[in-house]
Every structure is written in structure tokens, then in C-alpha cells.
Amino acid sequence: MSGMKLFYWPTPNGWKVSIALEEMGIPYDLVPVNIGKGEQFTPDFLKISPNNRMPAILDYDVEGDPVPVFESGAILWYLATKYKMFIPGDIMRQKECLEWLFWQTGNQGPMAGQLSHFRNYAPEYGDHSYALERYAGEYDRNLGVLERRLMGRDYILGSEYSIADMMVWPWVLIAKPLGRDLAHFPNVRRWRTMVKERPAVQRGVDLGKEYRRGAPPTDEERRILFNQKA
Ligand SMILES: N[C@@H](CCC(=O)N[C@@H](CS)C(=O)NCC(=O)O)C(=O)O
């Protein structure tokens, strides 16, 4: 086998990597990981992604055994450096790229994820008013950080579209379903539209759309996704 296997479920975190593979024109096979059914806990998947989260990839275009990569930021970095695409060539600009990948991983991603959890997955589980206020505030604070970064820049790294945009864009795409408004973030709005118009981005977001949830999670899905312990 050659190319890549993409372990994926259609969510903002999954889109980061489906978008990157589409943008880079890398052939891949989709392996759906139905997180509502607990497929992220199978021993075979844990060998690829020890944190029981998708996305992950298995790269067959290597010498020897296929190489697993987990964490979306690490996957984007791996692909961009391997194929020398969507990443600046010089070390100082690469440093900036890495800063925004880490920023997403440690800030925008977890805050948006928790906002989505309390708002869209667990609304009937008691009073979440402080959690909602906290995570909505943090989501907006991160939008403010991005707004300032995009002031006077087309993309996060300047005039060039890069993996930093692929990393940050998916959680901005779904601002409205998260109950947030981009009205006060004109540069974020402009950038969101510009990225959305890219055909590869549209293909990435459409990947596996037949699996998307149209309804609130079932009790069984909640049992799997909530209250995970060591
Ligand atoms: N920091 C991780 C986050 C990945 C993540 O949270 N994936 C979620 C879906 S959006 C998942 O696999 N959840 C499975 C679970 O909660 O058990 C990344 O960026 O790759």
C-alpha cells in the first residue's frame, strides 16, 4: 500500500487534516472512526493515537513500517515539512507557524471544544451558566487574538496561506452553531470567507458529511463521550 490512511470523523478537528490532505493533493484512504460508538478506544486505534482522539494518520510512503502521527498540529507539521508545502522555508517564519499551531492546540481548540460540549452536547445536564459564560468568553477572547493577528495580514503568517490557517479556521467556521457572532471581528470574517472559497477546503469539510450528526447525542453516545476516566 502507498499513500496515507486518514482516521477521521467529520468535526472541526478532523477537518484540519482533511483540508491539509486535499490542499497538498496527497492520496489517502478514509478510515471512519465513529467516536459516538467508541471506536477511538480500540487497541488498534490506540496504537496510532494513544490519546484516543481523532484525527490521526498512518503514512505508508516511508521506508519500512508505516508511520503513525496523532494530534492535528503534529500531523500538519509532519505533512508540511515532508512535502515542503504550506510552510515557510526559513526558521524564523517556521517559528511563527509553530507558535500559531501551539496557540490553537492550547487555547482556541480546547475552549471551543468545551463550549461545544456544554452548549450542544450537554444542555440538559444541569445548570451550566458559568461554564457557558467562561467558554464563550474564552472563545471570543481567542477570536480577538486572531483579529489582531489578521489586522494588515491576508493570512495568519502574512501574504501566504499556510498550515496555520488550516489549523485555526475550522473552529471559526462554526462560530454560529457555537452561538457566537463574528460581527466585531471584521478581519476574522474576511479571512474566514477567503479560506472558505478554496475548493480544497470545501472538499475537506465535505469529507464524510454523510456521517455528520443531525440530532443531539443519544444516551449511548453520551455514555461513551462523557465522563471519560483513566
Ligand atoms: N488536540 C486534538 C483534539 C482532537 C479531538 O478532541 N478529537 C475529538 C473529536 S473533535 C475526539 O476524537 N473525541 C473522542 C472522544 O472524546 O472520546 C487534535 O487537535 O488533534
Strand order of the largest sheet: 2-1-3-4
Structural class: alpha+beta
Do you know the CATH architecture of the largest domain?
Up-down Bundle
The DSSP helix count reads: 9
User: What is the CATH level 1 assignment of the largest domain?
Assistant: Mainly Alpha
CATH topology call of the largest domain: Glutathione S-transferase Yfyf (Class Pi), Chain A, domain 2
Helix content: 40-55%
Rounded average pLDDT:
96
| Overall outline | globular
Give the beta-strand count: 4
Distance between the termini: 35 Å
| Major β-sheet profile | 4 strands, mixed
Secondary-structure element order, as H and E? EHEHEEHHHHHHH
- Estimated radius of gyration: 18 Å
Which ligands appear in the coordinates?
A: glutathione
Tally of individual domains: 2
Q: Runs with pLDDT <50, length 5+? A: none
Strand content: 5-15%
Q: Secondary-structure blueprint of this entry?
A:
Blueprint: E1 4-8, H1 12-24, E2 28-32, H2 43-48, E3 56-59, E4 67-70, H3 72-83, H4 91-121, H5 129-150, H6 163-173, H7 186-196, H8 199-206, H9 219-225
Parallel strand pairs: 1-2
Antiparallel strand pairs: 1-3, 3-4
Helix pairs in contact: 1-3, 1-6, 1-8, 4-5, 4-6, 5-7, 6-7
